[in-house]
Specification:
Blueprint (H helix, E strand, L loop, with lengths): L18 H31 L4 H25 L5 H21 L3 H29 L5 H30 L1 H22 L8 H4 L7 H22 L2 H7 L4 H25 L4 H20 L5 H15 L2 H12 L4 H28 L3 H21 L10
Helix pairs in contact: 1-2, 1-4, 1-5, 1-6, 2-4, 2-14, 3-4, 3-6, 4-5, 4-14, 5-6, 5-10, 5-13, 8-13, 8-14, 8-15, 10-12, 11-12, 11-13, 11-15, 13-14, 14-15
Length: 397
């Protein structure tokens, strides 16, 4: 006979009832995204600190992302029977260790080792946390719960990366990673205290029986991979772009702070419409990203024009994480944890490919070609979403 569900592990019906759990998951997303993206803001400082080129330093983002892409599904499958909350706590401790290694690393090689370890933690963290958020509420509130949890990651862009960049500029980039390691440990204590446990689908049931949504899930995964590749082809090198437009190194951190803040606009749109018009949100966000990257290509000589275009670009991208996560979960092409692993792996595959493509383009043809290349890749993702009507439906039901 099937086991009766444990009433202590039953999901709350509404976002309000799950508020404490959603809040600490958002805090965990904050430190996770800050850990992943911090090298973007500190790229020039890191390259000088370990005596490598900026394009080589940018590969720290590629290494991290490719580790996540390769390990997300296998590690999620291997840990499928583990209790979710202790597993999530373990990833936060691993993030702390990764940042500490980076802070103390005397060479580029050890920096890459620290980032690799962080990538392994990330491979499990986002696979688990995406499914965790969906389990805290009833299916009718999945989009809103994911948007609120994703807000923590957006705040990583809004506050975490810019403030850490400014700190690194003022006192040294190693301090940024050291303080972030301490923040990861504090967050793990909050998660231990406030995050409720959730039930997990038994391993034997997770992969059994036909999944009619697998084709739709595959299309969402393709769209995520291509979209993130296009975005991160350019975003990985946003600091060098800003410097080449005439900004001072001290201004990069505050500008990234503003860029992160405008991402909240896209997040607000997703929170308002994702449970009502998910297809429209996805199409609008991707179209704006592609268009503004084209504009950026022709405004690189104007600091003001570049700042305005980049602000619109990053506002649109603010809607992307929650939109793509919700689309994947609603396909029901696998168990929530495996879907989370595919979302995690595909987005990081895109990040890694984008960072690698960007490294080649910025070291060769240059900044204008970088922005146009990113725009072209994003346009391909837009085409996938336009054609995949069942994977990105108008009606979330």
């Amino acid at each position: 006979m099937p086991r009766s569900p444990d009433p202590d592990l039953a999901p709350a019906r509404t976002v309000r009832e799950a508020a404490a759990g959603i809040a600490v998951l958002a805090a965990a997303h904050f430190v996770a995204i800050t850990t992943e993206m911090l090298p973007v803001g500190l790229l020039p400082l890191i390259s000088r600190g370990v005596e490598v080129s900026e394009s080589t330093a940018g590969l720290l983002v590629t290494v991290y992302a490719f580790v996540v892409a390769a390990a997300a599904v296998p590690l999620t499958v291997a840990t499928r029977a583990f209790a979710r909350k202790p597993l999530l706590l373990g990833t936060l401790v691993a993030y702390a260790a990764s940042n500490l290694v980076v802070a103390l690393a005397p060479s580029y090689t050890l920096l890459a080792v620290g980032r690799t370890f962080g990538g392994l933690a990330h491979a499990i963290f986002f696979s688990v946390s995406i499914a965790y958020a969906s389990r805290l509420v009833s299916p009718l509130h999945t989009g809103r719960a994911l948007t609120l949890v994703t807000a923590g990651g957006t705040l990583g862009f809004v506050l975490g990366v810019p403030l850490s960049t400014s700190l690194g500029t003022a006192v040294g980039w190693r301090w940024s990673f050291g303080i972030l390691a301490a923040m990861c440990l504090v967050t793990s204590l909050l998660v231990a205290r406030l995050l409720p446990a959730v039930a997990v689908e038994p391993a034997r049931a997770a992969g059994s029986g036909p999944r009619p949504g697998r084709g739709r899930l595959a299309l969402v995964v393709v769209a995520i991979t291509v979209l993130f590749a296009g975005h991160y082809t350019v975003y990985t090198y946003v600091s060098p772009l800003l410097l080449s437009a005439g900004l001072s190194p001290e201004a990069v951190g505050p500008v990234l702070l503003v860029f992160g803040a405008v991402g909240l606009v896209g997040l607000w749109v997703a929170a308002r419409y994702l449970d009502r018009s998910p297809r429209a949100v996805a199409l609008a966000a991707i179209a704006v990203i592609a268009g503004t990257l084209v504009v950026i290509a022709f405004t690189l000589s104007s600091a003001a024009g570049l700042l305005v275009a980049a602000g619109v670009w990053l506002a649109a991208f603010g809607a992307v994480p929650a939109t793509t996560q919700a689309a994947a979960l609603r396909t029901r092409g696998a168990s929530p944890d495996i879907i989370g692993a595919f979302v995690n792996g595909s987005s990081n595959l895109g990040i890694g490919v984008g960072a690698a493509v960007g490294a080649a383009v910025i070291a060769g043809p240059g900044s204008q070609a970088l922005a146009l290349t990113g725009a072209g890749i994003v346009a391909v993702a837009l085409g996938v979403v336009l054609l995949a009507r069942a994977a990105f439906p108008r009606d979330p039901a």
